[in-house]
Amino acid sequence: MSSDNRIVRVIKGRRPKVVVIGGGTGLPVILNSLRKQNADVTAIVTVADDGGSSGIIRNYINVVPPGDIRNVLVSLSDSSPSFLDIFQYRFDSKDAFFAGHAIGNLIIAALTEMRGNIFDAVQTLSTMMNVDGHVFPASNEPLTLNAEFMDGTIAAGETEISGQRKQIKHVWVTDTDTPEETPQAVPPVINAIQEADVIVLGPGSLFTSILPNLMIKNLGEAVCQSHAELIYVCNIMTQKGETERFTDAEHVRVINEHLGGKFVNTVLINSEKVKPGDLDYHKYDEYLLQVKHDFAGLQKQCDCIISDNFLSLHDHGVFHDGDKVATEILNRAFQHINK
């Protein structure tokens, strides 16, 4: 962190307010780095997941799927490493119910029943876990993701949509329990967006982690009406059943089209090549090829393109370098504050 950045913080007398919207495995890396670099972070997390342990718990006791929320809580928590290890522990028991479940998912589900809703449950748990920042479920109710494909067919549910391996035309969300009602984000979510210096989308699955949040009517409207800079952290790899053969410009085009205008201001793209052997395709079987660059297309979709080596290789996977991405996000936030 440069001395200039520290001076800006002193002059302004507050931490930059960064709202990060998404879900999936890429989000916690960015959040943790933003926290380390002293940002005032609010994570708005998707509640439309229907896969894995989260999906099974959702089907059993009808709560918002907790998996993404669990990982985000850990990324912003100041709790002891031993506690976080327990919270993240996943049963390997052969028991029909516990096998594969993370303890944290069960705790979130239990607190949701105790508090009566997922939002209050997560706020209680945030206090217990000494979370530095805010973790807000995008909706207080479980949502179902719906998609129309280019061939006119329709599918519902994240797993079903990606499993079709078809090109997606657009997505929308419905209330799982009362489909006739329009999904809404709770007031603290909207307030955080309105007060943000920058709003960050991703990294994460375009159609199943990022767009489900923006398709919540009042949440998407708040993003479009915000004076904050809207930053998209483009994925490094294309994803099976979602963004096959997509360029970086096509990722941004889809976001803008779903928002109904040219709203993305800045795009962060990785310039480093992913080499053969960098990625274990058996372990990370949802990934396909590296996202190709289309700078001419990007210039039509956004105002600023930041291209750098954002690649981090570990656990036989391809990830964003959280510290580098966080630094660029905060640089944009400081510029916004100083306008």
UniProtKB/TrEMBL annotation:
Keywords: Cytoplasm. Coiled coil: none annotated. It comes from the Bacteria. Pfam families: CofD. Transmembrane segments: none annotated. It is found in: Cytoplasm. Its main location: cytoplasm. Signal peptide: none annotated. Belongs to the gluconeogenesis factor family. NCBIfam families: CofD_related. Required for morphogenesis under gluconeogenic growth conditions. This is Putative gluconeogenesis factor. It comes from Lapidilactobacillus mulanensis. The lineage of its organism: Bacteria, Bacillati, Bacillota, Bacilli, Lactobacillales. The gene is yvcK.
